[in-house]
Amino acid sequence: MAFNGFDQIFPLGERNDAFAQYFTGQSYLAPLASGSVPVSNVSFEPGCRNNWHIHHGSAGGGDQILLCTAGSGWYQAEGEDPVSLEPGAVVRVPAGTKHWHGAKADSWFSHVAFITPGEDVSNEWLEPVTDEVYGALPKNGVNA
């Protein structure tokens, strides 16, 4: 499915207005599966990223799994270097890890996301990724 020249295998979905306060830029959300492990396709316009956030959980729950399907994006855990994401990349974010993810400045980006089920699973939204932090991301080289 193509949108504005952005081609991906899953639906773009609707504007993610319900969570817009936790994003810089425009994102889209397409629920793919419901039930005990809801799965969604999240798409980001160029430059869009979500705020720093933490997924909580116990008894095996609260890990976030990101399956990158289209475009080019970033993932960064607090205190770690940013990781460039391309289609086929898989990220496991352990419960309790402060992190953010989103599109590169010049590319759309999509990932399928879900949270592992368990006990006391919740999400804590934190501060935005500042333009200064985002603007300092690599522009070329292996990690760009």
TrEMBL record:
CDD domains: cupin_HNL-like. Residues 42-105 form the Cupin type-2 domain. It comes from the Bacteria. Pfam families: Cupin_2. PANTHER family: BLL4564 PROTEIN (PTHR43698:SF1), RIBD C-TERMINAL DOMAIN CONTAINING PROTEIN (PTHR43698). This is Cupin domain-containing protein. It comes from Streptomyces broussonetiae. The lineage of its organism: Bacteria, Bacillati, Actinomycetota, Actinomycetes, Kitasatosporales.
